[in-house]
Amino acid sequence: MATQGLAISITGAYKTYDGKKYILKGLNMNVKEGTIYGLLGPSGCGKSTILNAIVGLVGLEAGEINTLMETKKDLGFMPQQLALYDRMTTEETLAYFGHIYDMSEDEIEKRSALLIDFLEIPSSPSGTVALSGGQKRRLSLAAALIHNPPLVVLDEPTVGVDPVLRKSIWDYLITLAEREKKTIVITTHYIEETRQAHTIGLMRSGVLLCENSPESLLSQNDSRSLEDTFMRLSHLQECHKLKEEEEDERIRGMTLKKPKKPEYTKKESFFKRNRFKAEIQKNFAFIKRDFGLTLYTICVPLMSLICFNYGIGYDPRPFNMGVLNDEYPMGVGCQTWKPNDTCEFAGLSCRFLKKLEEKDVFAKNIGSMDEGLDLIRSSNILGVIHFPKNYSEALNTLVETQVLVEDPERDAAIEHGFVQIRMDQSNVVIFHILRQDLQDNLREMMGDLAEECGYHVKTAKLPPLKFEEPVYASLSTGIRDYMAPAFISILMFTMPMAYGVVIIMEERQSGATARSVAAGVTPFELMASHLMIQISIHFLQLLSSSLLMYVFLKYEFHNPYVGLGLLFTLGFPGIAMSFFIPLLMNSTLGASTICTGFVIANVLIGGTFWPVEGIHPIIKPVSWMLPTYFSTLALRNANFKGWGFTEPSIIFGFASIVAWTIIFVGAIYITIVVTKNRVFLGKNAP
Ligand SMILES: Nc1ncnc2c1ncn2[C@@H]1O[C@H](COP(=O)(O)OP(=O)(O)OP(=O)(O)O)[C@@H](O)[C@H]1O
């Protein structure tokens, strides 16, 4: 509680942001009740810092701040940043702060009408983002005055306001102080306008040079303007004070006593219905105004899954190859070759090529290997197949002479009959498919020949591997089906994380969150309201994605309860992460980089593209630590094998989700307690 007659008394305030440079250096300040106090000083001298300390947004290293505030409702605060929620209209903004301050609808309506009229604030149906700088500043001022508080702290309320309106704002503040006994602390860059204040505090280099009425300041310093007074006092300070670095050194050497928590903060309840309602309304205003964006957010997983389904795992045929056929040199080619389905070991290169066309692999004749290599380099063909002169003969020898007796001459002939292939292997996927095609083609052709020749022992036709109906999954299960559970898991975890991070960071950076906290909103209320919105969006994302994947596209989904349960609960660590990342990062860039890193790690080592069994042992423990790792394994088992809640893998999947949620929530709690609200205030937290 402030001393009798004083609305604010500050003694020995010290503040450093980086532990080296002191912004406040033992500042003392006294603001009388029912007066206007103009705080003046050059840019960067610490005016906003001391105001933020008064309203509880910045913590001091030492010093005592006593105010007449009994609760946060006794304070009206207008920060230097506009600190408005972009997507709320003028009326919604005032109603939002009115609800935070527990005002009735009727009171809100009356006060809003009065302030809108007096401050000439236009309505903004598309949100405050559409207001001009001056209009926003006036709205910001109205928000500080909506509940008619006894103490008003205004950080540069008249910047960007025209002189006529500036005068009427000052007239209004004087009326508030003189008729309604309000106490007003105001900073401004227009030195002369503070002549209307009852007291002026001239601040420089973290201390007050003097604190007096404008008249006394002028007469004591024999000046004609406040600007002259300020210059004179600054000059005197310059002559007497130590150099900045020496001053900081001296303060660092002092034993500073941590200040006590202000009395009023102890009375704040951590949850109030009206404040929570205001937060929910604010979040809905965001959704309503930016409906397109919200709809897009809901549809992102759906669109990603559509791209995934139609973009991955399909055959990239046809393939174009070049052929250098020494069996049928240029000019003759395979044109003269006639297919005949008899046991004939001649023209097998042509038979091979003809069969290859069934696989959509087409080979055109080339004149030389050099020509082929040029065509590969210019991306006209993928590779060159080179048939040797004795290709058919070599195959004949291979088939007819069983490999029982050693015969170096025969082996050499066979070796010279090998097909040589040169390829562009830079596209590994295409290379592997094509290699498989060529091998299959040879095997099939040899099988056909063996059948035509009626070999008793079907030498060339290797006994095929026959894959019967699989135990799990189906014969048609492909790479896309394998990847689908991992992909949808990643989406269900990362989408709530990315969405939440952006919203929280955006609000925090505009200064709006800090203002709400100064007005009394608690971290619990902020997080609970965000949580409600995020869960709703996550639910809609899950619903649309599951309908697409499992109902329309019919991906395997043998245990929907477990599958949907895993995907829904996976949103919780994602949401918790969206609260946790802003604890670590001050910039949106930093926060989005962490999100991107998470997505990449999940995709690469979370078993999406490559089985986790094949991950390098050094990296494996990192994979286990990914929030989606065990849940993806569980989802695969539920989707393909139909495993239920009693299977260890499923239990482990759910347990990992719960564990990660607990870890993140615990980390958030600890950080909020340790850094005191940093999650919503950023690095300025008290
Ligand atoms: N969050 C922060 N982290 C680090 N330094 C900060 C932070 N906020 C302010 N500062 C530094 O503290 C000093 C005082 O800043 P402050 O905003 O209090 O000055 P000011 O007198 O209000 O300036 P202006 O009139 O330009 O608004 C500046 O040097 C500023 O860079």
Can you describe what's shown?
The model has no long low-confidence stretch (mean pLDDT 88). It contains 26 helices and 13 strands. Helices cover 53% and strands 12% of the residues. Helix 17 crosses helix 21. The chain is elongated. With 686 residues, it is of the alpha/beta class. Strands 5-6-7-3-8-9 form a 6-stranded mixed sheet, with helices on both faces. A 4-stranded mixed sheet has the order 11-10-12-13, sandwiched between helices. It binds adenosine-5'-triphosphate. Keywords: ATP-binding, Membrane, Nucleotide-binding, Transmembrane, Transmembrane helix.
Secondary structure elements and pairings:
Blueprint lengths: L5 E11 L5 E11 L3 E5 L6 H8 L7 E6 L7 E4 L11 H11 L4 H14 L14 H13 L5 E5 L7 H18 L2 E5 L11 E6 L2 E6 L1 H7 L5 H15 L3 H9 L10 H4 L6 H17 L1 H21 L7 E7 L22 H10 L3 E5 L3 H9 L5 E5 L3 H10 L7 H9 L3 E4 L4 H26 L25 H31 L2 H8 L3 H30 L7 H10 L1 H14 L3 H18 L14 H5 L4 H13 L6 H28 L2 H4 L5
Parallel strand pairs: 3-7, 3-8, 5-6, 6-7, 10-11, 10-12
Antiparallel strand pairs: 1-2, 1-4, 8-9, 12-13
Helix pairs in contact: 2-3, 2-4, 2-10, 10-11, 10-19, 11-17, 11-19, 12-16, 14-15, 17-19, 17-21, 17-22, 17-24, 19-21, 20-24, 21-25, 24-25
The structure holds adenosine-5'-triphosphate (ATP).
